[in-house]
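Thread: Newbie trying to understand structure tokens

Hi all, I'm a second-year student working on a class project, and my supervisor (Dr. K.) asked me to get a predicted structure for one chain before our next meeting. I've only ever worked with sequences, so writing a 3D structure as a token string is new to me. If someone could post the tokens and maybe explain what I'm looking at, I'd be very grateful. Here's the chain:
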Amino acid sequence: MSSRADARRRPPAADAQLGSPAPRSEAGPDATAKPVIGSRWIPSIFAAKTTASGLLALLVAFTFNLDQPKWALLTVFIVAQPQSGLVLAKSFYRIIGTVVGAAGALVLVSLFAQERVLFLGTLAIWIGLCTFASKQARSFAAYGFVLSGYTAAIVGIPGALDPGNAFFTAVARVTEISLGIMTTAAISHLVLPTSLAQSLRRAVASSRTELADAAVALLEGRAAAALWTKLLGQVIAIENLRTSAVFEDRDIRDRSDAIRRLGVAMLGVIDVAQLLGRSADWLRACPAVPVPGLKGALRTAADATALWRDGKLDAAGLRQSFVRASADLPLVRALCRESFAPDEDVIRGAAAIGYLRDFFGAFAAFAEAHDAFLSPQPQPVRPARFAVSNDGTGAAWAGVRAAMALLFAGTFWILTDWPSGVTATILAGVATARLATMEGGSEAATKAASLFALATVPAFIVVEVLLADASGFAMFCLVVAPVLFVCAWLMAHTRTAGLGFLAALYFASVAMFQDRMAYDPAGLVNTSLAATFAAALAAARTRWPLWSIRPVGPGKGTGFTARRHGTSALDDLWAPSLTALEDQLREYRKVPRRSG
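---
Reply by user tm_fold:
Sure, no problem. This is what the structure looks like when written as tokens:
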């Protein structure tokens, strides 16, 4: 008998056992290792580290008598993240965004400082374009874009009021922001660091197991649609982790292309799995198109996949098992010639066989990509392009809303000649642009508007009463630290992250910390009103459709948007064209069928 016939007789488990055990990672920590710090302690540790970073930044700013130490404090809360890799990535893009924004502000000041209307109009266009770019970009590159937008407002508006000192204002803001970045990055990386690389390795290990589970369920005829949708979101999450972990871990940096290849291979499996699932379900329910060897091939592939999932089979052995399973399937030409079913049914049966073979190849490619990622030494991998489609229309509307918010605040400032209009306009630009890219931004803006109105009295007591009686930096820390800790603790939780950020923005703005504090109760009240006005302006967008910050999904965040558009893109791929197969079928049916 032929080797093909022998392969059909061989038990599936025996086939699978011919391969070698799957390799284990020797690069970095075990992917299945539990984190040293329990998840329930992470918010408190993050809040303590952020508070320490803020106080250290203020101490350095006071020591060197920087112009406005509040921006160093605010920068700490902007770049603070629970994981050190995220802090480094965010800090990198923040520095770039700050420099670009400051340079853009100087250009606008040099051109339009004498005409407020033109200046505010061009500044609004700049913020709108940066917000649009931030919605189109991925990971913290998006943050760099939005930062360059509102940094132009932070630097440009005071610079336009005093053009002669605009350059020195820009240098002062860049210095203060850089100070906040350096203190946050140092403390996050040195004090109880939470490794992003470990999270990435655990995500890859989890995705491998879940992808294998979904593949086994598909081959055994069980429902797996929810698993494939979840896996699509995990691909995007892994890519986002990769873009930040490269700043923290050299090994991840060396394996960056391998991780991208893994993500592309995983998307290939998901794509073909959707095609196969639809065709296989129809094929099982249509006895008019018998496919010899189908059940055996599915059983062989399912057993081999389960062994690979359990680490008892490597990628080469898995591919060999898939080759033997594919050999059990009939050729499409034979199916088309010998079947007496209607043409449409034969076409769908032939497509199902083709999709099954494609699935075998796609899953084997994923297994090989996974083994390459786990190799003891990073292997040269051809760079793979990984792009996620974003909502261009939504990004454009976000840019328009950010620009209109600044124009509205600036117009109100000019018409009323409000003494705190400068602060209100700057904070409106910062809050509007920042919340456009934050999860739960609209809800946070609504809560913040109420919080700021109610927090005026407590802020007055903390700043004008308690701090006025404090002597020395130690007493200063005793008064300020609890407020900073609460803001950071709120930021550590997803549902209150936006509220915590805005609370820190409010406190840093109204306190106006200086080495030699100048207590001004009227100024504090006016600044508090300006912050409330900025938050209310952002919250008002939820009432007016043109201004509303569209939520990306209940509790889902940006990942939901990416998954939605990713699913839409895959839907286009899941609509196969059978024109070529129909033409082949007509050609095959012209050949006389063999008798007996």
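A couple of things are worth pointing out once you decode it. Residues 198-247+256-377+566-590 form one domain. The radius of gyration is 30 Å. Feel free to ask follow-ups in this thread.
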